[in-house]
UniProtKB/TrEMBL annotation:
<protein>
    <submittedName>
        <fullName>Glutathione S-transferase-like protein</fullName>
    </submittedName>
</protein>
<dbReference type="GO" id="GO:0005737">
    <property type="term" value="C:cytoplasm"/>
</dbReference>
<dbReference type="Pfam" id="PF13410">
    <property type="entry name" value="GST_C_2"/>
</dbReference>
<dbReference type="InterPro" id="IPR036282">
    <property type="entry name" value="Glutathione-S-Trfase_C_sf"/>
</dbReference>
<keyword id="KW-0808">Transferase</keyword>
<dbReference type="InterPro" id="IPR036249">
    <property type="entry name" value="Thioredoxin-like_sf"/>
</dbReference>
<feature type="domain" description="GST N-terminal">
    <location>
        <begin position="7"/>
        <end position="86"/>
    </location>
</feature>
<dbReference type="InterPro" id="IPR004045">
    <property type="entry name" value="Glutathione_S-Trfase_N"/>
</dbReference>
<dbReference type="Pfam" id="PF13417">
    <property type="entry name" value="GST_N_3"/>
</dbReference>
<dbReference type="InterPro" id="IPR050983">
    <property type="entry name" value="GST_Omega/HSP26"/>
</dbReference>
<dbReference type="GO" id="GO:0016740">
    <property type="term" value="F:transferase activity"/>
</dbReference>
Length: 205
């Protein structure tokens, strides 16, 4: 990001949202931290968040007059602004493969978050939806190929999304014990756990 265009990027975030964590990790990966202000909020309690994001969700990005309200777009915008990583692999042969990994991992996140919300209901839980979300998580993890996931030296947006997904499973679904069931992914993940952009954004109770 050039000094000629260095107005502050405001990102509305949460310490527990895996979608917000994706944006936070991309900020660190792209080196945009000095140009970015991360504003932590609770989307379930902060009514003023809707003044920024009418959907009342995080992450949300405000940069000058631009407003973005989805983690996919926010991460892409940050990647474009940095212009030093090309996390989305635009113009490269593996572009669609990377986007497919990204979408699968976003699907894991959606299913995992929906499961948490369903179990918090005070009325009877839907066994049908809980089973569907469980199957979505398991099936997606089963088909992810290690050679598609990126490396610590050369991550892509799918790498970021999978790290967010695995971290959220640890945080909200420890009973899944995903490391035991997916040892190849666990071995892959071990290469990232202690990296600053991963460790510093790991959700904590």
């Amino acid at each position: 990001m050039s000094h000629a265009n260095c107005s502050t990027i405001n990102i509305y975030s949460s310490t527990t949202s895996p979608f917000a964590r994706k944006a936070n990790m991309v900020v660190q990966l792209t080196g945009l931290g000095e140009h970015t202000q991360i504003i932590y909020t609770n989307p379930f309690e902060d009514a003023s968040l809707r003044e920024i994001n009418p959907l009342g969700k995080v992450p949300a990005l405000k940069h000058d007059e631009l407003l973005l309200t989805d983690s996919y777009l926010i991460c892409e915008y940050l990647d474009d602004k940095a212009a030093n990583l090309n996390l989305y692999r635009k113009g490269q042969a593996d572009y669609y493969q990377v986007q497919q990994v990204h979408m699968l991992c976003n699907g894991i996140l959606e299913a995992a978050v929906a499961t948490v919300m369903e179990k918090r209901r005070t009325t009877e839980h839907s066994a049908y939806w809980l089973e569907r979300w469980d199957a979505s998580i398991s099936t997606a993890l089963n088909i992810l190929g290690i050679n598609q996931l990126g490396t610590a030296d050369h991550p892509h947006i799918g790498t970021v999304a999978l790290i967010a997904a695995l971290g959220y499973l640890d945080f909200r679904h420890p009973e899944r014990n995903w490391r035991e069931h997916y040892p190849a992914i666990a071995n892959w993940y071990s290469n990232f756990e202690n990296l600053h952009w991963v460790a510093s954004t790991t959700p904590k109770a």
